[in-house]
Amino acid sequence: MVTNAPIPSKGGSLIGATTINWEDVYKGPNVMWRVPRNIKWGDNIVVREDETAVFYRDGKVLAYLDKPDRYALTSMNARLVGSLIKDLSGVRQEAEVYYLQRRIFDGKFGSPEPYVFRDPDFGLVQLRVFGQYRWTVGAPDNFINQFVGTFGAVTTPDVEARLRDQMVILVYNSLGKMKDQGMRVTDLAGQLSTIEQAILGFAPQHFDALGVKVNQISGLSINLPPDVQAAVDTRSKMGVLGVNYMQYQAGQAMTTAAANPSGAAGSLAGAGVGLGAGLGIGYGMAGQMQGAYGPGPGQPCPKCGTLVQPGVRFCPQCGNPMGQPPAAAQGPPCPKCGQPVPAGVKFCPNCGASTAPPPPRKCPKCNADVTGSGKFCPNCGAAMPT
């Protein structure tokens, strides 16, 4: 914060001149200190290794000194002070002086409002972000012009509050750019280190104008809503187990049924749940047994596990393609679409056309029955009508 410490008077190059320096007792965690009075012609400014003295007047920075030394603001030291002597030797011979520390500062950030992330699987998801960062004063003139001149910051907490808001905006913009590159909600937990590096790479675009350099991003945490987090956890478990959603639910139902206490109501409920779970698992096991022991009365859908009759190309439950029917299910071609039709089936499962043979036609000349689609009567050779 800006500490109004007394200015020590230690003599200088001119009679009555004041030597000004930032005493260690007033530094502490503060990033800047404003000299309590305006600097005047003839004063001495002491700058140490970890400090920068910034001269500010009329809403802008006149100059700054970042090399350790004692600077006398007189014409005798014009070679070192440069244009500042010229500015102070005019009509107004005074200016404000701010000391800045050049050490590294630690800060924290967190989103006061959720960030809406549009995910292709989960839709609009509200995220909250938290983390830590390390920063230093990169450009003293920009820093004073922005925080003192534009924002009116007078304390270090004022500076930190502005930086915290800018960090949240930076994280949101970085997440938006990574989302455009294909990142999904399910990728966030495993990509936190990558996201931190991306944020650090985008930081100069946000902080250079403020005279601030962000050196490190760490401890990044992106929190999902509880229902979305539960769905992400379920999907991860399904991927590890290698099962679909119905199979996963069946396993969960069996676990719940096994945990129910014994009793009349508990037994009935457990039996019902166990029966449903058993049917679901049975569908899943049918596919494995069919591959081992030959074709059965049907095959499970590879997506939802529903038992599908032979010859059906699409699952009636979820619409998933079933692939080529097994060889045992193939039969004579459909008279309309040509797809194989299992024996005994009256309508084609592919196009719905009747599989019954058409009635025989009568020869217009000899009145004999003509089967099939022949163009001539096999009895008398007369042409058949089309």
Q: What's the SSE blueprint?
A:
Layout: E1 19-20, E2 32-34, E3 39-40, E4 44-47, E5 51-57, E6 60-65, E7 69-72, H1 78-81, H2 83-88, E8 94-101, E9 105-110, E10 115-119, E11 123-137, H3 140-150, H4 156-180, H5 192-207, E12 212-223, H6 226-241, H7 245-259, H8 264-293, E13 299-300, E14 307-308, E15 361-362, E16 369-370
Parallel strand pairs: 1-4
Antiparallel strand pairs: 2-8, 3-8, 4-7, 5-6, 5-8, 9-11, 10-11, 11-12, 13-14, 15-16
Helix pairs in contact: 4-5, 7-8
Walk me through this protein's architecture:
The chain is an alpha+beta fold and 386 residues long. Helix content is 32%, strand content 21%. The chain contains eight helices and 16 strands. The protein has helices at residues 78-81, 83-88, 140-150, 156-180, 192-207, 226-241, 245-259, 264-293, and strands at residues 19-20, 32-34, 39-40, 44-47, 51-57, 60-65, 69-72, 94-101, 105-110, 115-119, 123-137, 212-223, 299-300, 307-308, 361-362, 369-370. Strands 2, 3, 5, 6 and 8 form a five-stranded antiparallel β-sheet that branches. Strands 9, 10, 11 and 12 form a four-stranded antiparallel β-sheet that branches. It is rod-shaped. Residues 1-15, 263-296 and 325-329 have low confidence and may be disordered.
